[in-house]
Amino acid sequence: MPRTPRTFTVSDSIVVAASPEAVYGQVSRPALTGRWSPENLGATVHGGVDRETYVGMVFDGHNRRGPARWSTRCTVTAADAGERFAFRVHAIGLRTPRLRGPIASWEYRLEAVDGGTRVTETWTDDRRAWPDAVAGVFDRIATGGHTFAAFQARNIHRTLSNLKRVVEDAPAGG
Asked: What pTM value is reported for the model?
């Protein structure tokens, strides 16, 4: 039986009844991500949170999956207001992200459509140097039996549904 090639990118979209600027105002603030992510608990931005999001901004994401908790070091790679927010994850650890290396990239693309904004969230597996067999074993242990691509596809769907609810339930201007 031929082996299925490893999937390195998954994405999904949803329409949110809000302007691209309003959606960007949420997704581009890493400290808020815990409000809609099934795994992320928020983030600590290096240098404080008073500044506008910018390319090169570094933050540590705080995460949990069941009883497991860990932190990731991330750097913003795109900060185009109302259009695109992206970051790469390049370190991981329990309390402090110390193990460095390419892990993943995340992107939110925003497109004005009738009824609001189409939000497309994309996850890319940056572990290209990992042999497929090693990645497969690690993924199944870390996700409870799934590949990261399959696991992230479900997480993205949940994230977008939660983001839609949070943004649409927010008071106007807030």
From this structure: 0.91
Percentage of residues in the chain having pLDDT higher than 90: 72
Pairing label, strands 116-125, 84-93: unpaired
* Parallel/antiparallel/unpaired status of strands 9-16 and 68-80: unpaired
Residues contacting residue 60 through CB under 8 Å, at least 6 positions apart: 43, 44, 46, 71, 72, 73, 74, 96, 97
CA–CA dist 143, 136 (Å, integer): 10
Cα–Cα distance measured from residue 70 to residue 63, given in angstroms and rounded to the nearest whole number: 5
DSSP string, 136-158: HHHHHHHHTSS-HHHHHHHHHHH
